[in-house]
Amino acid sequence: MLGVSEDLHGPRRLAARLARLGPLFVKTGQYLALRPDLLPQAYCDALLGLVDDAPAVPWEAIEAVLATELGAPPREVFASIRTVPLAAGSLAQVHLAETRDGRRVAVKVQRPGIAASVARSLRWARRAGPLIDRGLALPITSGELLNEIEAWLREELDFANELDNQLALRDAVRGLAGVRVALPLSELSTVRVLTAEYLEGMPFSQLLRLVRLGDAEVIARRGFDVELLAERLIHATYHQMFTARFFHADPHPGNLIAMPGNVVGLVDCGLSARLGPRLEAAQKDFLAALYDDDSVRLYRALASVVQPGRDSDMAAFRREFVAAADAWSDRRYAQAQPDGNSDTAGFMVTVMQLSRRHHVGVPPALLAVYRTLLTVEAVAQQLGAEADLGSVGRRFFAGSEVERLLGQIEPAQAMRWLGSLIELVRTGPPQLQDLLTQLTEGQLVLTTQSRQSEIDRRAADRRAKLVALALVSLAPVLLLAADLGPGWTPWLLGALALLYGAMLILWWRLR
């Protein structure tokens, strides 16, 4: 952990220092905000508030990049384009434009020379690695951390990769209410330019500022419901991970748009991740077990995907894992945990910290899952919403299990079942009445042929009657479920009472 005090002054000082050092350090801070396994939660919360806001690049330089990448001056490519950017970040800036066919689009353009600047900064950071290691007591070396940051920035700088991710994410959320991914225009995009439909709304980073200022009136006037936005953000994240198995892995407040109707817009899709079937099933089982307070099943789900190494102490890892799971289970229903996390988020942080402590490898995709879930919950908390991973997750996984079971029923089979139920409702009452009449008059006889003794034949006959009555008792149960009306209820309940009484007598005689 950081070798500094964990009061609020330390996290704020670090965030302010990174902001003063420049945009690239802001990006590094945003990355560290997603690593609660490396930094205390207070630091992650402070760094999550960093806004990637850099001085705008002059239009002439942006115009040159657009002309080079698109093959013509921007005023020939677009019907119109604003020279003043909508937003300017450390890696790119965004300009509002209109296509020749009248669509409003956001044109994201890389800052000139940014790739070379990133490479130089990383080289400088690697030379300063020993100083960084001495100044920070992190559970990984500066070299490992810089490798992660370099890979992260490389993905962010590849706009062709981002376009593919954005198309995949649109498919991932297709038909999902309350979330939207902008449609990218491949014909107006390159590795350094990404053009996509413009999502009208307010960035979550701006919405969070209004929340911190306590300006509820402005938020209400804009028609935003922070509780609904938070719930939709978390639900959409679960859906991407465990239904589509492809998810936005950088849901930073600057990459989220609060749109009219409380729709959550997802932008900047450069960092996305895919879950394989095995990892998706294990993580879904992990979260379901967490909500069921099943520490043994929790460990089994995690152990199926972690990667023990030569220095791993799996016995100690399991012992501490189960102890931590039991401790979190005892506090599951608390409103908030001491570190500000919900039960789910706090346990995920614990898992990542234990894996680092005992040198147990965690697949990168699983780390991406944890980072993403922790980030969306942190955003929900900063919005002041009650929705968290646990409350939304329990509903999501319950609905997901129902969908899975229904998905196993073939349409033809379902239609046969429905037809049988309709026929039972139509013919059941008179048939049931005939059976009850035969039963009360002693006329219910099941013919059997046997070479057994008379006593054995009577016992066999009673067993057969008991089975028959058990089957017959299903009819009034189904008819009660069909809700034929209040007039039928007493008769059906009476029939059930008679059937169960007869079954009890037969069972007693068989003893």
TrEMBL record:
SUPFAM superfamilies: Protein kinase-like (PK-like). Keywords: Membrane, Transmembrane, Transmembrane helix. Residues 50-299 form the ABC1 atypical kinase-like domain. Pfam families: ABC1. The chain crosses the membrane at residues 488-508. The keyword Oxidoreductase does not apply. Belongs to the protein kinase superfamily. ADCK protein kinase family. PANTHER family: CHAPERONE-ACTIVITY OF BC1 COMPLEX CABC1 -RELATED, PROTEIN ACTIVITY OF BC1 COMPLEX KINASE 7, CHLOROPLASTIC. This is ABC1 atypical kinase-like domain-containing protein.
